[in-house]
Design goal:
alpha+beta, Ribosomal Protein S5, domain 2, five-stranded mixed sheet, four-stranded antiparallel sheet
Length: about 240
């Protein structure tokens, strides 16, 4: 079921930044057979819950969409309301990437991160975090070069990866079939230097003992730097000039 990969191996990652003509920051990420596009928009002003008070910094919020043919059968668009799963992932993306971005860099300004899944084969929320970080990196790179920002605004390099128990074995970076068959799966969001931001997931079948849970979590934290190392050459290359 691992398609020949070792239990701790990542699926191939390919990143391109500066892919969208109009967005202030953008990135396209292919992770195995999951394809994600992330764009960042700079929106003057703050959301209603931060207006009129003592809040002097900026804000970052995220929206997530699984496009209709991202999956094996068509899913209707979420036109009138955002489904519970999408809301959960949006909040995860926002929390993860607010940890990466210095909110004081652009005062009284909101960064809107849009993450669209073009094709899904497991790990879409982890791919959304990584693509979102890359889009913010693209924004930061161009804003510093053109003088809009005088200091580098990313406080941490942030990534994410899934880990799980599959037939009793700990595995890293689950595709859809593996995720569907796993006894337990976790989505681990962490920094490149090994600090946790968020963990989502749990047992699908039997309870797990705490020691094994911690070991699985440690595997995820250790894998995040490898995810970031895989995309770093594209980040270093920069986007549009």
């Amino acid at each position: 079921m691992r398609d020949g990969r070792d239990p701790d191996a990542l699926r191939p990652l390919a990143l391109e930044v500066g892919t969208h003509r109009w967005a202030e920051g953008s990135a396209d990420l292919t992770w195995g057979d999951t394809h994600v596009r992330a764009t960042v928009t700079i929106d003057p002003g703050l959301p209603p819950h931060l207006r009129g008070g003592k809040h002097r910094s900026g804000w970052l919020t995220a929206e997530y969409a699984l496009l209709p043919r991202a999956t094996t059968s068509r899913r209707p668009r979420e036109r009138l309301y955002t489904g519970g799963r999408s809301q959960e992932i949006q909040r995860l993306l926002g929390r993860a990437l607010r940890a990466a971005w210095d909110l004081t860099a652009l005062p009284k300004t909101t960064l809107i991160l849009d993450v669209d899944v073009l094709q899904a084969d497991g790990g879409t929320r982890c791919a959304g975090v990584v693509a979102g970080f890359a889009a913010l990196h693209d924004l930061a790179d161009r804003a510093v070069r053109d003088g809009r920002l005088s200091e580098w605004p990313l406080r941490h390099d942030v990534g994410a990866v899934s880990v799980g128990l599959l037939d009793g074995a700990m595995v890293t970076d689950l595709d859809y079939r593996e995720d569907d068959a796993a006894d337990l799966d976790l989505n681990v969001v962490a920094t490149a230097d090994g600090h946790l931001i968020e963990v989502q997931g749990g047992s699908e079948r039997d309870p797990i003992d705490p020691e094994r849970y911690v070991a699985l979590l440690g595997r995820g934290v250790a894998a995040v730097p490898r995810v970031l190392d895989a995309i770093r050459p594209a980040l270093a290359g920069g986007g549009r000039r």
